[in-house]
């Protein structure tokens, strides 16, 4: 039962924003069975008290989901990322041109691609660049742009303009969260806009995301998750979430972690 009283309701709004990373006026109005104007007054009060930050259409916790650095993420779910990378690498054929997003899981894929002959790799990520810089037989291009230190990836108009001059056999994307209703979640709109542009230039699109990222919405920037794309994840992924993705037209491939040892 929703809490009674404005004070208790506002405390619960803060809790929801902190745990889910999302607090829209529409959702909160339904949860607490009050009008949208009541929720807007609550959010205004909480913002004035410094307990929430206002966003378009709602609010978010001030420090609910701070973006972790790439260095911090590299050690997370290591076995799952390695397994996902091997499944993804098996899809790539000699002589193809592939696009690699920034991120630790896609960086693990770059490592697996070092021995693919005649491969051309275009990337937005410093991790992939580092993995492939000395790989024999692999031609590497960087989209360039503005570097985001926290993710070690390039974004912005220079990266976007570079995409107009090349197409790809396959694009491999990462994400901070994946949901059926929202799509791919990232910390900034510059990241999600670039993902959508990258996907449009590829014949096949794959999303690499370990189980912990499924169903997560830690931020408020989204890229569409299109029917026909493929999600590659690990065996810990929730069966209901995978079923929902399949129902929305997303192919799902589950990596075998034991086979990646």
Automatic annotation (TrEMBL):
Keyword field contains Lyase: yes
Q: Which UniProt keywords are given for this protein, alphabetically ordered?
A: DNA-binding, Lyase, Transcription, Transcription regulation
Molecular function in Gene Ontology:
DNA binding; lyase activity
Task: Write down the Gene3D superfamilies for this protein, in alphabetical order.
Answer: 3.40.50.1360
Q: Which InterPro entries match?
A: Carb_Metab_HTH_regulators, DeoR-like_C, DeoR_HTH, NagB/RpiA_transferase-like, WH_DNA-bd_sf
Q: Which Pfam families match?
A: DeoRC, HTH_DeoR
Does the keyword field hold Endoplasmic reticulum? Answer: no
Annotated HTH deoR-type domain residues = 6-61
Question: PANTHER family this protein is in?
Answer: AGA OPERON TRANSCRIPTIONAL REPRESSOR-RELATED, HTH-TYPE TRANSCRIPTIONAL REGULATOR SRLR-RELATED
Its name, as the record gives it, is DeoR/GlpR family DNA-binding transcription regulator
State the organism's lineage. Bacteria, Bacillati, Actinomycetota, Actinomycetes, Pseudonocardiales
């Amino acid at each position: 039962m929703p809490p009674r009283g404005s004070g208790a309701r506002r405390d619960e709004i803060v809790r929801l924003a902190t745990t889910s990373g999302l607090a829209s006026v529409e959702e909160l109005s339904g949860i607490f069975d009050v009008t949208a104007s009541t929720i807007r007054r609550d959010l205004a009060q909480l913002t004035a008290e410094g307990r929430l930050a206002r966003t378009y259409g709602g609010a978010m916790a001030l420090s609910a989901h701070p973006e972790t650095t790439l260095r911090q993420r590299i050690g997370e779910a290591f076995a799952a990322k390695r397994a996902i990378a091997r499944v993804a690498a098996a899809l790539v054929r000699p002589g193809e041109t592939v696009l690699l997003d920034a991120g630790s899981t896609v960086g693990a894929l770059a490592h697996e691609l070092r021995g693919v002959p005649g491969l051309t790799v275009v990337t937005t990520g410093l991790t992939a660049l580092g993995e492939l810089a000395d790989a024999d037989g692999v031609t590497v291009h960087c989209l360039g742009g503005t570097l985001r230190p926290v993710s070690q990836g390039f974004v912005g108009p220079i990266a976007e303009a570079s995409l107009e001059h090349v197409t790809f056999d396959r694009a491999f994307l990462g994400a901070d969260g994946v949901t059926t209703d929202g799509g791919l979640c990232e910390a900034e709109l510059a990241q999600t806009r670039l993902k959508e542009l990258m996907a449009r230039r590829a014949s096949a699109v794959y999303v690499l995301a370990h189980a912990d990222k499924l169903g997560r919405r830690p931020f408020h920037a989204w890229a569409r998750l299109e029917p026909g794309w493929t999600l590659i994840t690990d065996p810990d992924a929730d069966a209901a979430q995978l079923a929902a993705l399949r129902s929305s037209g997303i192919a799902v491939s589950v990596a075998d972690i034991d086979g990646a040892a």
